[in-house]
Design brief:
Elements (H helix, E strand, L loop, with lengths): L1 E6 L5 E10 L2 E10 L2 E10 L7 H19 L1
Antiparallel strand pairs: 1-2, 2-3, 3-4
Length: 73
């Protein structure tokens, strides 16, 4: 499992983790906060990652977290 954290474009911080579900897929979970107050949790997966470097996987997960949270608002 790999830890991940960041800030979305709409001002929420998140902390979460992701892990390889198969050779070409990762699943992730993230908890979102604003000013330290819990606002929600989301989970998702990113597919088709065969041959992708660890840094690119992390970036893909962060992009998916951003998309899922911002689209929900």
């Amino acid at each position: 499992m790999t830890s991940i954290s960041g800030k979305t474009t709409n001002g929420f911080t998140y902390e979460g983790d992701y892990e390889h579900a198969s050779s070409d897929r990762v699943t992730w979970t993230a908890i979102f906060r604003r000013s330290g107050v819990f606002f929600g949790m989301r989970h998702g997966r990113v597919n088709e990652l065969t041959g992708v470097s660890a840094g690119e996987i992390s970036e893909a997960v962060q992009d998916d977290i951003e998309f899922v949270w911002v689209q929900a608002r």
